[in-house]
Amino acid sequence: MKALARGPVQAGLLHLVLMAPPAQAAAQIPLAVEVRGGGVYSTPFARGRAVVPAELEAVARDLEVGPRPAPVVELALVGRPRPSLVLEIRSAVSIADVAGEGGGNAWPAGRMTAVHIIGGLRFPLSPLPGVDLRAGAGKVLYLSNDVNLLEGSGQTGVLLSGGFGVRLPGPFPAFGVAEAQWHEFDAAPLAEAGAAAGAVTRFLAYLAVPAWGTP
Amino acid sequence: MNPRRGTGSTLRMALVGAAFATACDSAIIPALPGPYDFRLAVYGTDGRARPRTFHWDRGAVVPVYVVHEQSGAGDLRQAFRRAARAWRSAAVFGEVRLRETTDLGEARAVLRWHDAAGVLSTPMTCVGPVTGAASTLGCLNDPRDALRTWPRRDGEPSQVIYRVVIRRTDDQELLERLVIHEMGHVLGILSHSPDPSDIMWAGPDLPPAPTARDRSTFRSLYMTPVDLPVELPYPGE
């Protein structure tokens, strides 16, 4: 499956290389670096069910495990090849506590680091001045030493992203950005454990401030 | 072509697509087999058995002190690591985790060969049947309504709740399966599965890892209220 996926990815990268503007043209593309800070909320990574024996309490209790809301910091390289189009490559990191929940209880289940790398574009939403739509794709990587769920496989996934930015009033050109990210969580180790994974949605809200250049 | 019909068809396709997308988004939770009874049968002074439930606090990391020695027998430390991994993969909701410790003061369980130098004293009230290839033993207090800690031989304060003893075996695979079984007891499965295919079956020929029924039992255990608490500190210590 991975071998099948590798082909289109390599072809896509080659396509991007061939499409890349020559160095002289690239030098003419206004570039900027943005620093972004905000928060991320994620839907659970896994859901399951526990059946408590009938002679104790005849109930089935739903379980889930996932990261708690956490701060996120992102760095973006932004270029504007055309007045109405902005391209960006960005990478973010967030460190989140992970919690299990079930039967009205919550418990600590470790701590993890999430890193995402996304290539994307944004274009103005013409009826609304100062508002742009954003879309992108990339990878997310989860790292942890103590989250049971993240042991072994199931740590990376292809990420799709969409959102919008609003230019904020003020002396410096800052943007408020709201974004949703979506990725599949590898269900292979979970099926054996009797838990369901599937899609994870992450919601991010952050403030983007130019640190260098003016695209 | 009827344009109205085309619009309706497009709408239907969109609705079907939306329903499909919704269906894809809601993951189906795989069914696990029903759990077996994980409770300890505690016999009171009236001779009646009362099933009791013990498990560690959800989210706890349980330190286990491994009395390790290399004398031609199997590698106990390696067996413990495999057991910790096996139960960790069952605890995907972060219910509990085992880790090895070299600090006896923080250990909640001690794992050793039966002929290795013991680090715990054995009060008369903790004496129990030590038979078979391996055993896990805990101590009850006098009213038999709580677990109590094992005293240490060196007289230092102890938090040890379970003593796990493995008989000699040169078969590393058997050793590792035995330790997975015993660590199941340490985590709170205080009885045995009636199914010979489960890791918590009391007989020989254990499977290489916890089965779906073992995992189901483990998960149910950690959603069940504890009614066999731990009495700390050890009375008289």
Can you characterise this structure?
The complex is a heterodimer of chains A (215) and B (237). Chain A is mostly beta strands and 215 residues long. In chain A, 13% of the residues lie in helices and 60% in strands. Chain A is built from three helices and eleven strands. An eight-stranded antiparallel β-barrel of chain A has the order 1-4-5-6-7-8-9-11. In chain A, β2 (46-51) and β3 form a beta hairpin. The longest helix of chain A has 18 residues, at 2-19. Chain A is elongated. Chain A starts with a helix and ends with a strand. The relative contact order of chain A is 0.19. Chain B has helices at 3-25, 76-90, 172-187, 212-221, and strands at 40-43, 49-52, 60-66, 96-101, 109-113, 134-140, 147-148, 162-166, 230-231. In chain B, a hairpin with a 5-residue loop joins β1 (40-43) and β2. In chain B, α2 (76-90) packs across α3. Chain B is globular and about 55 Å long. The N and C termini of chain B lie far apart (92 Å). The model of chain B is unreliable at 1-25 (pLDDT under 50). The chains are: A mainly beta (215), B alpha/beta (237). Chain A binds chain B through residues 46-53, 56-57, 61, 63-65, 98-100, 102-103, 105, 107-110, 146-149, 151-152, 187, 189-199, and chain B through 24-32, 34-35, 37, 53, 57-59, 61, 85, 88-95, 97, 212, 215-216, 219-220, 222-224.
Sheet bearing the most strands of chain B, described? 7 strands, mixed
Sum up the overall morphology of chain A in one term: elongated
The average pLDDT value of chain B, as a whole number, equals: 82
Record the strand order, biggest sheet of chain A: 1-4-5-6-7-8-9-11
Note the main sheet of chain A. Answer: 8 strands, antiparallel, barrel
Alpha-beta content class of chain A: mainly beta
Strand order of the largest sheet of chain B: 4-3-5-8-6-7-9
Most extensive chain interface and residues per partner:
A-B, 42 and 35 residues
